[in-house]
Amino acid sequence: MLELQTSQDFVKALKSSSDPPVPNEPTKIEIARTTWDNSSFYAPRKGEIIADWSFGVVIEGKGPAKTSLLDTRFWRLLLDVISTSDPLPSSSWLPAILSRTPLIPIVVSLLETLCKVDLVVHSEVLTLVRPCLAILWPISTQKMTTEALLDCFASFLRFMKSRSQELDINPNHVGLFIVTSFRRSFATCSTKKKIFSTFVRTVLPDWVLSCEATSAQHKHSVSRLIYASGIECLFNLEILRDSKLEDTFFEALGKVDPEVIMPFLPCLYQSHVESIKKNRGALFAQDSKNRLDPLNEFRNSALRVFESYHVILSEDKLTQHPISVWRTRSALLDLVDQYHLYNGHGLGQQDQNGTGFFIEKIIQTVLFELGAGETEKTGVVLECLASLVQIDYRLIEEVLPDILLRLLFISHAVASSFTLLELLLQYHTKTRTIDTYIEKVLSVCSSLDSVTGDSKTAFERCSGSALLHPAHLDKVAKAANDFLPSTQTSNVVHSSIATIESLQQQVLSPGDSGTSLKKRKLNSGRKESSQVTQVEVLRLFATASVALVVLSSVSVQAVAESTRIQLLEALRLFKTSLNPALLRSLRTLSAEQDRNVEIFTSSLLRLRYAIDLQLAEFSDGLPDMDQDLRDAMKEFLDSVSMRSCPDLTLEVIRTLLTRTPDEAQDSALVDQVLESLDGDPPPDTAFLLLHMLVHRWLSVIDFRASGQQLQKLVGILLDLHTRHEAPYPLKMLVSQLLSMADFWELPRLRVALLSRIDGATAVLDGLESQQSRLEIASVEAQNVISAFNLLLVAPAEYLTSSSVDSKAGTLDVPATLYVVRGFISRVLDSLDWTDSLYRDALSRLQHLQKDLPCSEDTQYVSVTVGLAELYIAALLKQGEKDGSELVVLIATFQNARPSSGVTWNCFNRMVDILQKEYTASQFPEVVQIAFVDLSKHLKSALLPQIHALADTTPAEGSPSSSTLLTTWNRLQVLQRWQGIKEESAPAFGRHLTIQMSRRSDTNDELCIHAFDILLEDFHETHADNRADQLDVVVAVYILLFKTRGTNVTEHIDRSVLAFYSSLTVEDFTHAVNFVCESLMEVDEESAEVAPLVHLATLLMREPPQSSSQVVQNLILTCINAFNARDFFTSGTSSVRLTVLDFLLARCRDKPATLRLLELGGIWSLIAKMTCGSEIHDPTTSFKTLHSVISIASSLIRLRRDLVVLTIPHLGTILRRLILIMKSPRTNLGARQSAIVSNDLPVWVRPHQPFGVEEGKALARLLESLTTKTVPRTHVVSSSSQTPKAESLAKPFSKHAAYVLKAYIQLVNDPLCTLPVNVRKELQPGLYALCGTMNDYSRDALMASMAEAGDKTTLKQLWQDYEKQKYVGKG
Hints:
By secondary structure, the protein is mainly α.
């Protein structure tokens, strides 16, 4: 074995030409490791020797250098050597080694090697490399050149590319060293152009790939630094000044993989624009000869760059990714709009190098894509078009008709089409050119040249387009009604009428106007004529869809009277001119169906109805219809079914319903409507027809229809409501109808519906035996269930008690129980049917307690117990006079089986009612004896089960264990209600609660029941042990508060409130003292702080009688403790909020007992809450601010008499509240940000400021200073007069100036910002402060301000205050 005797032997071994130095002996790394670990082996500067050898191995390639780079032994030894300080620190000899041994080649070689190994190996290596570089890198970075750092940066990017998955902390720290040093070196580099050329040539693809992979996450700082480093290298001032380098960059960018570069282009362009904007002062400097506008030059330069980016998207290799190309193009255009780069100077420019040329090229490309029909990229193309509209509407103004024409055949499912139309409509609304938009839409619809496919397909595409969708047409109607000037109304109406008349003549063939559509089609005999008819009809349909919206929505009332008369006359004449065409087309359809004729007729009928609605506003009603037209419509309904012509049938029915002259025709029309509904129409048409009847004509049908017709209508509605195969929209419509009050107010329809329900449930009349009930269950149970399902939504006021008793009370079929019992419970609970409750209450209650197959269902138990509670309450009320039935009920609980969940739930409800509403002495003696026997029986039966449960402490909370705990708790309550107290009563609450709360898998419901048992155990505890039991209650409460969720804490809060309010003063005093001592002794980091403060709040909220002195001691002790210990005000967020809840409960809920001694402590606490802090929470606590404002507001409103004595404190708090509304400006340095953030409380995150709601709350607080209130105290005034209401305006007038000055200084602080919307919300409160000040105070405030900006702000604020101030004139 190789033995090293001297240090020369050690050095000789390391410098040996072979490894190992001696065959079959230890390797050099083993020798170095052994020598380093052997402290007894002395070698001068041993660490320096090993480090020098290590660097030499890697740099000079001596030995297996590549193996050494991945050898963890090598890096662990190097780390031990350079991190030691014995005998000499490494800092004394490392600089000398690193001065002759460059570190960058080692790191580059390491990263290149790690790219080829698996994840486990490079993770192990980098775990050791990272701390080594943390020591070596700062020393060697001073002599690193920018070129070398760029090579290292490129190696790290290649390493990231090889590891596509998310990197862990070690490679990110290594990258942080490299990227930070490269950025620092490049910032001071004098050869930036050379570095740029190298970066673009060798690094750009890898940089783009790494940035694209991490841009969506930015989880690590190294990801952001990589992107920032590349941006600084590509877009620094020297590069931006040289256009040739810019061309080189775009040439290299175009060679990057399309799938990688396209998603990254918008981000890159945004950074490019930001760089130009940042350096625009140097790039576009002004001089005396060339006076350029830097803003315009910046826009032109950014647009020129945009064109270069857009050229990349036009390359042939990107044709395989059309959707990505369009999405990128849209994102680039959004950035043009975001930075307001386009100023319209390129409009009409024909120069191929101009801005207008390439934008025009984009528009032409968009039109070409849209002209190819609807494809998967249509949505993205429309997004691009919407971006162009946002940039400048004038860009697409000339081609708007072409765009609208293409939108006429693009489905409304393309969401971006609505975005585009919304933008177009917004522009015309703002410019008050709605008439122009309407005329363009009408022109496009009326100038259709050709359509593809048959008439049905073309009609479906056109009617389902975004342009004719109701969502868009509704907005057009609103715009026409609200924003169409009166001077344009006449032109729009006349042009719409003229367009429809022209299209109507084209369809009817003006040369043969007397020939019907059917004869015209037959006589043509050519396919071309049919195609022309199809196009003409489609034109009319599209134009009429727009025209009817316009004609029905324009505000004729707003125009001059002479113009109004002309418009109304034109509408009447136009309506009359439609009758001949409608008459001929209806007769044609009665003889032979034709799709084109149907569309034509439906369009004209819609137009006619829209005109009738407009004319109805200026007449007593709708005008009579021509008799021949009415007869033609009825003939059409008789000859055509709704399934064959659904749309036209719907329009004909609506037109006929508007006006019918006599009852005979009324009845016939209702028959036709019902036949249309009952004739299996298409689901969509049936929905539209039923929707029209429900929301428009139901009252008319109720008035006109016969009883038989109403029964048929009700039958149709019930069938749709109950039939499983009925379409969902129809079922929902019927459900909405049955929930409408308007429907139930229709007397005839209501009678028909209730009669129908009586018929459906008639099988229940007179049923007595269980056998007969089961017989009807198998045959007609579904109809009965459907009837009661409907009654669940029916208003109970329209139902009779006899129907409920005689029918619902007889059902016990399991399938109907949930529905029927829910119905009965709702009816009996909502109406005062005392007789129904008293009648057979006992038998009904016994019936409800039967065990059925569905007894385990939670919903069934809940509904059944809810109904049973009504009967139990009735029996208890009746038992005060006659207790015979109540005794029988009590006996049923004694005989109940343990598994009967419904019975024991009924027992629990009975005990709850007894505890809340009765005392034992109110009942006859026989009832009291029955209750005592029940208590004894239940205790003997439940005690063994409770013992077993306490030993097992189940976690899952089965229904049986939950019911057992609840029943035992109610038994305890019942015994206390009777006054029964046993000295040796077993106490299970403490054991159960502690065992269950310690197990995280324990059901919350079991913990709640166990805690209730613990509280009841206290009442049975011996007097000597009551204090200990109270301490246990507090301890268990804290335990549950810490380990359970809000559901448990809310329930135990209610239980604790009731428990403490029932204590004696002595017991309550002990509980208060225990909580106070715990608060004074609790540790700062303890999790018990928040539960203790919350429990103190509960103790203060509902104390027992005659304990006011104890409560005052509790409050004062708590306030002193909060002020004495800083973690109550600067600790965790939960602790601070519970402290504020305590103060809020004190000031808002119990203001009458508030003392001046407490008020000083409250102001001190709020001041500490709002003072500045150097550390801040991760998020701003908005609830904290609202709580502080609520406390101050409660004091001002309710205890003005005490606040007057502490006015300076109030002024200080208001100043602090105004100052914490600020936030630091963007792009501040570290010290500047610290100046602002250190003035904010710990619960305010500097970069997450308060918003509008907080501004409103603070303004309301300031306004409360001028609100007149009467102090809420228990002191009785000596005079008989009512105390006078006063405000704090006069006492606070001397302090208002300081509060106002805080706001003015905040607004003018150069380091802070206060959003405009927050300032607007604060104005009412500031005006209230101004109102409390007099002119002298205002002048003194103005004189105290040294800054001109502060004086200007005060002057403007006071002027606004004077403008809005009421001076009593009017």
